[in-house]
Amino acid sequence: MFVDVDGLRQVLLADTRLEGVDIDAVRPGENCRAGPVFDVIEPRAKESGLDFPGILSAHGTAGIGTTHVLEGAAVTVLDGGPHQGPLRSILEMSGPAAEYSAYSELQHLVVTPRVRPELARHIALNATHRAGLQASVYLAQAGFGQALALEETYESVGPAEPGREGLPRTAYVGQFYSRQYSPEADEQILYGSNTEGMAPMLLHPDEWLDGAVVPSYSAALGGAETYFYQNSPVITDLYRRHHAGELNFVGTVATIAGADNADRDMNCQIASNLTRWALKADAAVLTKYGGGVPHADMAETARLLEGMGIRTAVMVSDLSRDRRVESALLFNFPEIDAIVYLGGNDTSWTVPPVERVIAGNPQAAEALAVSQEFAAAAIAGVSNQQGAGRLMSAIY
Predict the structure, then answer these.
(1) What Rg value do the Cα atoms of the chain yield, rounded?
(2) DSSP label of 386
(3) Which residues are paired to 284 by β-bridges?
(4) How would you label 129-165 residue by residue, b for 16+ Cβ within 10 Å and e otherwise?
(5) Which residue from 154, 156, 194, 158 is spatially nearest to 176, judged by alpha carbons?
(6) Closest by Cα among 26, 33, 25 to 354
């Protein structure tokens, strides 16, 4: 595939908030490091034009119709703004740490939007976000009219699908934001909204996979890039087991972590009630967003579900380096006894110097070039809240 760089740049610079765009190609195994990563997106486009509804297109329901995908490729968006302290999300394409990130196996088009310096930070982030999504759609449109290498169909699921009697009715309860952060007014997370005033809601699984949910500006904190919503390991595995006749995948509940105890109690009650009464689930898989606070929301929702007779499995991670400051053990409910540990900052690597650096700003370029120690959560694709990482817990 050949990318028309000038054509892509012209599309992106139609946003007058940008004064320039750097575009680079990076291949698997290349001795290259890039950062700070703002987002990673799999190139996808719909001939209907309903791409990332509420952001790039008019409001509509994601997950309907045909989506063209460039599998094996990614648009990696760098934050081209001023240096913001320690580098939190790095694309590592070679060496020992890269082996633990699926991103190192992809062909990357690295896009660094250059936002006009007089604009406020949140406006710069909005422009950066939009540029990455536009670039991913632009690349995927190359698939229109081409012979398909692979066709995959996600058939409708739902609480009333016939022919599934006797199979365990299984739901997914997924957080996609934490109100411990205050979203900007222009922060587009769910169908273009910033989650202000949101309560838990039902989403069809295909909506998650097809652009209804995208990361917030703080996504680098929690390994929640767009790529892993588009390829959600939990949803795609539940689909696989659904079609194999192992379970009845009845749907999903989309939720957020609360800002305080009152929000937490309300959200957890609504999420558990939707799972029980709307989806009529027998079992549920739960994942969280971000760091320590969302543990409590996920755990309380699981506790309520267990009290309703719904068996749960939860995924947890640990962002502390010493296992003392912040721990995966932020809850201790005996009834929640199916816990999957996803790894965290207690795993680290000393990475060597690299020949090529792609950076959002000069300070980052200098920091990325040298040998240093990176914790797992600092390397994009290693520590992931949806369970897509390659770290495994072991008992010695």
Answers:
(1) 21
(2) T
(3) 171, 312
(4) bbbbbbbbbbbbbbbeeeeeeeeeebeebebeeeebe
(5) 194
(6) 33
Task: Write the DSSP assignment of 291-323 as a string of letters.
Answer: SSHHHHHHHHHHHHHHHTT-EEEEEEEE--SSS
Instruction: Identify the pLDDT of residue 377.
Output: 82
**For 87-96, 135-144, 271-280, 341-350, which range has the lowest pLDDT when averaged over its residues?**
341-350
Q: How far apart (Å, rounded) are the C-alpha atoms in residues 202 and 200? A: 7
Question: Quick one: tokens of 393?
Answer: 């817990």
Return phi, psi of residue 175, to 5°. -80, 145
Query: pTM of the entire structure?
Result: 0.94
pLDDT of residue 329: 58
Query: Are 153 and 113 spatial neighbours (Cβ–Cβ below 8 Å)?
Result: no
8 Å CB contact between 240 and 233: no
Distances (CA, A) of 281 to 171, 175, 213, 373: 6, 18, 23, 44
Q: Where are the domains of the chain?
A: 5-143, 169-346
Q: Residue 242 is encoded by which pair of tokens?
A: 């659904």
